Structures are given as structure tokens and as C-alpha cells.
Amino acid sequence: MRIALPVPRLLPLTMAAMVSLLVLKSVALVRAAMPDAVAQATTASTPPPTASAVPASRSDTARPDATKPDPARAEPACPLEAAGSAAPPISDSERALLLDLRGRRAELDAQAAALAVREATLGAAEKRLAGRLDELNALQKRLEALEAERQAHDEANWRGLVKLYETMKPRDAAAIFNDLDLPVLLPVLDRMKEAKAAPVLAAMQPERARQVTAELAQMRTRAVTPAGPAAPQEK
Questions:
Q1: CA distance linking residue 235 with residue 233, whole number of Å
Q2: 59-87 pLDDT per residue, tens
Q3: What is the pLDDT of residue 86?
Q4: Which one of 8, 13, 90, 129 has the fewest CB atoms closer than 10 angstroms to its CB?
Q5: Rounded mean pLDDT of the chain?
Q6: In the predicted model, is pLDDT for residue 55 greater than 50?
Q7: Is the distance from CB of 82 to CB of 76 less than 8 angstroms?
Q8: Are 158 and 188 in contact (CB under 8 A)?
Q9: What is the chain's Cα-based Rg?
């Protein structure tokens, strides 16, 4: 005797398998989302730790990027420093120009030093010349004073001699003047008073009196006439 088993249908089995798969996937998704939700809820409910509560060693080990800058992301502090670190190369012409300028500057410095020494020398020479000029001025004043004293002494001597001849009789004085040299006779007659000199000249020899009168006139003319170029001598 055979027992007849019912033949299972294919559509209901397929639907049951699909439902089972959906349930398994839902359970897996719920399990995957559960740790993130629990962690967020724990973070929201727990207050943040203070700086004193967290150990320094743990904070340093937990966040190594907070203390050490990333060399790949570090930017230069100043663009000029970054640009200046890589100086452009100097060509031969620029190097020659720099050397020429350095030589010119050395020459100018040497010339300036020489000029400074020359100025110091000239200043010392000017001081010496100024002192010498002061000495010469003092010497000139002394010589002028001595010359004035000598002239006064000579004038006093001449005045004494003139007074001597003025007190003499005209005939006696004329006898002496006839033989007296002209360099002595002319100054004496020039300093004598006219009232005293006229009788003496009248008592002198006519030729001698005429000569003395002419020489005395020339002497007085030379005394009042400024010195000029010498007259040409007649051949």
C-alpha cells in the first residue's frame, strides 16, 4: 500500500526563502547600528573630561597630530624668506662688475684718507703761518716804534744845531755855510726860521747862495711830490 505525498509548490517556497533573507538582513542592520547609537548616547550623557583630569601622557599618545605639525602641510612663515633662501646665480659679468665696484670703492676710500691727511697738514701749516704772521706784525710794530724814536732823536739833534746857528750873527753863520757840505747845510737851512735864514743867505757868497737856494727848492719839491717812475736820463 502506497502513501501519496503531496507535491510542494515552487512559488510559496520561493516567497518563504525571500522573507527569511529579509529578516536576516534586518537583524544584521540592527546589530550594526546598535554600537554607534550606544556610543553616541554614552558620549552625550557623559560630561567632557577637564584638562587636569586627562593625563599628559595619555593625551599625547592619543592625539599625536596635535603636537607635531605635518611637514607636508607646513607653509613658510614669510614668502620673502622662502624666496631669499634660493638666491639666483651670479653671472661672470655681474661678478666682474661687483669686483670693479669694490676696487673703485677702495680707491675712493684711499683718496678720502689722503685728503683727510692733506687737510690736517694744511690746517697745521695755516696755524704755523698765522703764528708767524703775528710774530711779524709784532716785529713790524716794534721796528716802527724804533724808527719813530730814531727820527725824534734825529729831529732833536737837528733842532739843537739849527738853534745854534740862529743865535749866531748872520755874517759868522754865512762864513761857515760857505764851506759847509750840502747834506748838512740843506737840512739846517730848511729848519731855520725865514727871518733868521734870510740874513745868513744875504751874507753868503752869491754863487754859493744861488746853489744852496736851488738845492733847497728841489729838496722841498721832492718832499711834497710822490715817488714816481724815474725820468729817463739824457744821452
A1: 6
A2: 444 444 444 545 445 454 444 454 455 56
A3: 57
A4: 8
A5: 75
A6: no
A7: yes
A8: yes
A9: 69
Angle in degrees, 0-180, between the axes of helices 182-191 and 92-167, rounded to the nearest 10: 80
Question: If we measure between CA atoms, which residue out of 93, 77, 74 comes closest to residue 85?
Answer: 77
The Cβ of residue 24 has, within 10 Å, a number of other Cβ atoms equal to: 10
The span from the CA of 197 to the CA of 209, in Å, is: 11
- State which amino acid sits at residue 9: R
Residue 89: its pLDDT value, please?
Answer: 78
Is residue 149 scored above 90 in pLDDT?
yes
> For residue 223, what pLDDT is reported?
79
Q: Phi and psi at residue 85, in whole multiples of 5°?
A: -65, -30
Q: What is the Cα–Cα distance from 209 to 222, expressed in whole angstroms? A: 20
DSSP per residue over 119-145, as a string? HHHHHHHHHHHHHHHHHHHHHHHHHHH
Burial 134-157 (b: 16+ CB within 10 A, else e): eeeeeeeeeeeeeeeeeeeeeeee
Structure-model confidence comparison of residues 57 and 125, the more confident one = 125
**Cell triple for 56:** 599628559
Tracing cell 753863520 back to the chain, one arrives at 173
Retrieve residue 211's grid coordinates.
746853489
